């Protein structure tokens, strides 16, 4: 028998307002809404609703809202409704629970316990509307020898770097997990913003090679879509060792999502499941990583920086130290609240550590070992606002990756149902009728708006601190103070408590 | 209350400097007179001077000036010094009792030559050897503090108004081709003599007026290279940055200035291609040594003075010339006090580097 599980959300329709235009019915790929010809009224089946708000947003008379169902089992602080429902689901199916997007559990968010400084009296704040306020930076190795030409001028001995006009990049989301139109929007926004988007592990669609200068291509354990042109066409190459939402496991894109286009881009048969193994089977140790890093550099004539992306796990500092000595130029660290197109729920919600702590410890460790200049640090999972960016940089990051925030800008309402492939917003789906709902002309402008707005906010906060270059904020932990943190947390973050003097 | 160095202590200040580029000697009196004019820029919690060319008879030896809290610190420090150096001459530094200068520590001077065997066994460059010995004493020996360690130069500093500190050290009796001085307005200090400025390392001395906003970014970066920022002051970290870039990495002073007070990207993009390329490269190589927030700094070194200010010009600095003599001060009034009739007076632009050197060292590079 299958235990009936009551719906979590209910669709509430104001019948006074509803004009039965059936927009909600057409917009819902989950088939929640239907028209009853007998009564001439709309009905809704809440059991199918994922609460993506597509119908709410598009209802022309604002007749709809989604509310949390008040149906409940007998209240129990230990066995809450969700926990019980998950038991029923697993008893029904025998399967692993799947989830999407980032960990929604109420773990501490350290960003919200850090406060930023501002100048008063002894040091003037700077007005970004009147004075230059630099957010430009370069990512990559900075350790270089001082050499001079015959005229005594410095030679450029730097390894290749990435130039960013704003310390925010779009993090890896594969074509397959998100749609063609979502990719196009990200690519065009990255180009206009002077930053980078990341192909994820699904290869690069032929149409998007023209955005190569703003593209980071990923080489993951499945090696999907990796070939000569892919590596050569990119600005940088990222080796994906792990993902914050699912550290220690691989990926599985169901065959249903492998459309003809996706199949060509990934270089796998149409309809076949795309399975990324948990490890790279040529990397069982740090010295193996070095070989892949150097192989990719050799293959691209040492012209491109190589990023190694890892999930934030318990011994992150030691791992980062190893990567910094592997020849990699940039380390990307993905925190345990990072998003995903699909992950086992138990992994997403219980594995990994917060990015704030991982970042603080990695930055400190690399400095103690004197190798901070060997690599740049990029952090993600999850960066939610310009304030998070400012705090991350002050803790020691060079730049941030944003994924969820970018998808929200494209319309995502965080219904966390990407794995179902029926994204009503045209983002996490390959169904042509749904994909076309996301207009890349509009989508890319919304991304440019978002990151542009963050840039202004970052500049305002920098100006307040009297800092007019983002590089003077990097690792500047005296600009942060903690509130509501324990002695141990402050020590790990390397910040003082609010109220403590400089 | 915590001692200086155990907390970060920003401060406002007055700075001044003078150099006779023909190498002619001046007593310390001129600097005392100049800094006295800017009395209100200090608050009596720190003043100091650096003189160059003041020890011509011992010019081959490292002149160490030390503060001691007591005799036991002195014994410990001298034991360390004799293990690493030959002491050519040592004595207590002669001072004059001034009613407003109180609680002075024991103040000693040593002229030193590194022990040749010890130096060669260390596999270090001589200057690096000396710098490390200075750091060792300052970090490890409680109650002993080396506040001057260059050749043929000396730093004199203490707690009090700078003009009083100058008289305390009898600087009118010293003669040098260049001087800098500093009056301090710390925003909180228990008044520790070692915390006064100039701050020195080998023959570099730095006086600084400002409060840099990049402090912790600079500090955490420079500490990767063996420096310990024990005083937690801007001046200390700026000195280490200059030492690192110039002495250890081999940049010119001008290149170091393009790191510390780098031009804005928008300014760099308007420069001629060669300069654009060099300045871009320097910013890309050493972004964490960019100093932001208000500062004007006078760097003293053997044969010259360098003036550099923050790129927004948030702290004043005035330069002037009269014949062979060049002047720098926070306020023009301080210069006029010692030389009313100037050939030229100007204010360097934000981030603009001004260097005054002895003619036999290359002269003015501006």
Short description:
The complex is a heterodimer of chains A (502) and B (366). With 502 residues, chain A is an alpha/beta fold.
Q: What does the average pLDDT of chain B come to?
A: 92
Secondary structure: helix percent of chain A: 25-40%
Instruction: Determine the CATH superfamily of the largest domain in chain A.
Output: Aldolase class I
Major sheet strand order of chain B: 8-3-10-1-16-15-17
- Computed over alpha carbons, the radius of gyration of chain B is 19 Å
Main sheet characteristics of chain B: 7 strands, antiparallel
> What is the overall number of helices of chain A?
15
The CATH superfamily of chain B is known as Aminohydrolase, N-terminal nucleophile (Ntn) domain
Strand order of the largest sheet of chain A: 9-19-18-16-15-12-11-10
Q: Spell out the helices and strands of chain B N to C.
A: EEHEEHEEHHEEHEEEEHHHHHEEEEHEE
CATH class bucket of the largest domain in chain A: Alpha Beta
- CATH-derived architecture of chain B: 4-Layer Sandwich
Instruction: Give the integer mean of the pLDDT values of chain A.
Output: 96
Which parts of chain A are unreliable, with pLDDT below 50 for 5 consecutive residues or more? Answer: none
| End-to-end separation of chain A | 65 Å
Gyration radius over CA of chain A: 24 Å
